[in-house]
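Long-time lurker, first post. I've been practising inverse folding by hand and with some scripts of my own, and I keep getting stuck on stretches where the structure tokens seem ambiguous. Below is the full token string for one chain I'm working on. Before anyone asks, I'm not after the true native sequence, just a reasonable design that respects the backbone. If someone could post their per-position residues I'd love to compare against what I wrote down in my notebook.
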């Protein structure tokens, strides 16, 4: 019973760290830009999509949970949680690169089957660059996030 309560506390603590970091990041972002919250959330939804956000947040939560377990568990269990945390962080990197390739493929695919003429080229290029934006924004978000999570995991593991 006590172990189950302790595990739930650890899950909620991981969620608090993740959501707190997101809120602090957004607060700093809003402080330095003229964007409004609805404008930003709409841009994130359009640019990244729900599937990327949900998968990235799930993998981030797992990595943060593992980081907390490494911080609080006995030395004998560190390798187990370290392996799971690193796989989760690598999963974020793989996800980002997969969405990058998907966005590029969608961008190139949007040109196929269209006859390009001076009248239609602007619309075709606009559609292609929208898909390229998806591609590169997932990389810009996923790779640094993966690196930061790996750094926390490795530094904490080596310190303990």
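-- Answer (accepted) --
I ran through it position by position. Result:
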């Amino acid at each position: 019973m006590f172990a189950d309560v302790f595990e739930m506390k650890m899950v909620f603590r991981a969620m608090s760290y993740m959501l707190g970091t997101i809120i602090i990041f957004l607060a700093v972002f809003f402080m330095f830009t003229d964007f409004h919250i609805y404008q930003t959330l709409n841009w994130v939804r359009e640019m990244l999509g729900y599937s990327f956000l949900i998968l990235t947040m799930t993998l981030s939560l797992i990595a943060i949970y593992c980081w907390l377990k490494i911080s609080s568990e006995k030395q004998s269990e560190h390798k187990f949680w370290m392996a799971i945390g690193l796989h989760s962080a690598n999963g974020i990197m793989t996800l980002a690169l997969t969405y990058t390739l998907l966005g590029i493929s969608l961008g190139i695919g949007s040109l196929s089957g269209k006859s390009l003429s001076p009248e239609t080229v602007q619309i075709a290029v606009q559609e292609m660059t929208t898909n390229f934006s998806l591609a590169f924004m997932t990389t810009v978000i996923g790779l640094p996030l993966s690196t930061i999570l790996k750094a926390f995991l490795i530094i904490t593991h080596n310190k303990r």
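A couple of notes from the structure itself: Residues 2-159 form one domain. The helical segments are 2-32, 37-72, 78-109, 121-159. Happy to go over any region you disagree with.
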